[in-house]
Fold each of these.
Amino acid sequence: MTDLTDLGVAAIRDGVATGAFTATEVATAFNTAVAEANDALNAFIVTTPDAALAAAARVDAMRAAGEPLGKMAGVPIGMKDLFATQGVQTTAASKILEGFTPEYESTVSAKLWDAGAGMLGKLNLDQFAMGSSNETSAFGNVISPWRRPGDTAPLAPGGSSGGSSAAVAARIAPAATGTDTGGSIRQPAAFTGISGIKPTYGRCSRWGVVAFASSLDQAGPMARDVTDCAIMLEAMAGFDPKDSTSLDLPVPEWSAALSSDLRGKKVGIPREYRLDGMDADVARVWDEGIAWLKDAGAEVIDISLPHTKYALPTYYIIAPAEASSNLARYDGVRYGLRDLPQGAGLQDMYAATRAAGFGDEVKRRILIGTYVLSAGFYDAYYTQAQKVRTLIARDFSQAFEQVDVILAPTAPTAAFALGENSDDPLAMYLNDVFSVPASLAGLPAMSVPAGLDRNGLPLGLQVIGRAFDEQGVLDAGLALEQRAAFSARPAKWW
């Protein structure tokens, strides 16, 4: 039998449905893989092997009884530790929430369990999803399964969904949930040679997901390939009356409609993304991607997104501003950590709790956010940033009058070593330079592995689509996937 941990979502689901193997056999294989790898990779904060086996047993019983199976039947997945899971610790990788066990289930995770998926555990991430390298977690760094040839230096798996990307790339989970605020699904997918899609803002409910920046946060799937992402997104998406930003739209059968035939489609290449001093390997893979989409039948058109240069500073005003508001709820009063010094008053408890519970990057962003929202600077920074955000969204709207999708790099470089950029926040923030614009505009965007750099590390290409056109993004992603024929995987060292 094929090693079950080499199978992705579609292969597992179909194999369970046909009886080629049982869901319990799959769950057992992945539980074993997680147990063997997690000490080395630190991808999971909490493992839940019993939950994976219980979900598998339900699927096997349903199949034996001839009952219809869900879209994710028999597929064990990793759950980013930003999603509330009933009865299982949910921390957002922060000490301030260590030990917090929700009495409720997030809408996205509930949809996945209803579709037949099981949970292998809660995946590590940058604390409160704030980071691009998974170095800000209170539970230790996630280590990428990739290594540079002849070099044992641990590499960043990307962030904030670094636990998700590492687990899928290492074959210890066939798929995982991620969240994307400014690139936190796409950039880690690119760093580890997997696929990941951020759907249109509102496609997936934010209810039960620990908030970072509410106007930007969006859940999405991370998996081995485009088809698996499409299947998982179908299970995750859908209207939720509990989320006021949720889209009241039907969920298309994206996986059934997948097509890599792009004849009649137009692909935009934004000239502003050709940065001065761009990494030569990134530029090469981008040019190869353009050729692949032409080969798929698409017409390639040069476009302009003139406000792109303002996207990063705009994001790093709006996101911290929203974070400073959202994180005010962590005060030591109702749940989570409470640090109460001897003889302390209420304000002292607030200060001590937050000082002990929040990491440096979270504190940095809270300070920035509070500053830009303060009375003397609100109009100068926050109001201006919202105006520029509107201009960035308008750039995309005008571009999509000419083209169907946009092709760009996902990240400016391949994975870097842990510690390489940690002393330079600005260098770290530049990792999001290609991914942030689509987030600010609320557009669907996907990263697909497209090749290797000079050091043998994965590089991703990003497809950005019109609002609500996940199908167009997935189709272009499939065309890239088929032509890139990316089959590299990390050599096992753990």
Amino acid sequence: MHFSISLPGLKEVDIKRVEEVGGVIRICVEMERKIHRCPSCQSRTSRVHDYRIQKIQHLKLFERKTQIFYRRRRYVCDCGKRFSEKNTFVNRYQRTSIENQAVGIRAIKGKTFKEIGDNYGTSATTIVRRFDQLARSEVKPVEELPPVIAIDEYKGDTREGKYQLIIADGITKKPLDNA
């Protein structure tokens, strides 16, 4: 069975089955079979070694938690190297979809990491990790201090310590540094 519906972040996949189990929407997907380039020897191959089912957390659909069951194809090359097919919706070694990166944006605007984790069906630790990734990309080295500086300290138990400090430009409200 082939669904012609297009879901956010799943434009290049074949949706095989959609079902609701215990308030969770399960979407079973598979990529189209293509010729892939071996990461080791760079030769092209279409020989399939095996299939693995990968469970991925996705964005909520209709206010229900959503899981993707991705039937990941693994190829084998003549050189003996085995590798997974390339896809556009989940990064290597990850269990959340790329579309679920909205969690990071919500982590900035949300009240607490635990509340956001509960809303997205993940742990507060995952939310903190996403927040840290976004913070690293936003905080740039400062060449010159602005005329107004805002300093805020807050309690947050991380590997760096129990309390954190953020220094921001008091006019533009952009962060300058955090510790």
